[in-house]
Design a protein that fits this description.
Length: 127
């Protein structure tokens, strides 16, 4: 298993954000895959079996909540990070956690902080 990069899937309809995230996280030691909508994201997750999925909550064809629920059914160990550009109510956050989300991040966010958070979550999964 040594030398194997953690696989990360970024699902967001904002191509610029998705590509920027992938570029920075690849430099930080992740193998990044991308999808621009929920359908492609779920399909890509089935192909690459990612260790971490970062998904936007608001997508044109679905919600991050629905993706989270679908991906959690497939894997109990994949780390699911919900990404949002707006304030979430406590009820919305609770819903996401109940559906299997591991973490929330609010745009804009610091990429270095995101990378550290991902690495921390991955290290906890290796117990």
């Amino acid at each position: 298993m040594a030398g194997k990069l953690p696989k990360l899937l970024i699902i967001d309809d904002d191509a610029h954000l998705r590509e920027s995230l992938a570029e920075v996280l690849e430099l930080d030691g992740f193998e990044c895959h991308q999808a621009g909508d929920a359908g492609k994201g779920i399909s890509e997750a089935g192909k690459v079996n990612p260790d971490v999925v970062i998904m936007d909550i608001q997508l044109p064809d679905s919600s991050g909540f629905q993706i989270c629920q679908e991906l959690r059914k497939r894997s109990k160990t994949t780390i699911l990070i919900m990404m949002t550009g707006r304030f979430l109510s406590a009820e919305e956050k609770k819903q996401g956690f109940e559906l299997g989300a591991d973490e929330y991040i609010t745009k804009p966010f610091d990429l270095a902080e995101l990378s550290v958070r991902i690495k921390q979550l991955l290290s906890r999964n290796k117990v």
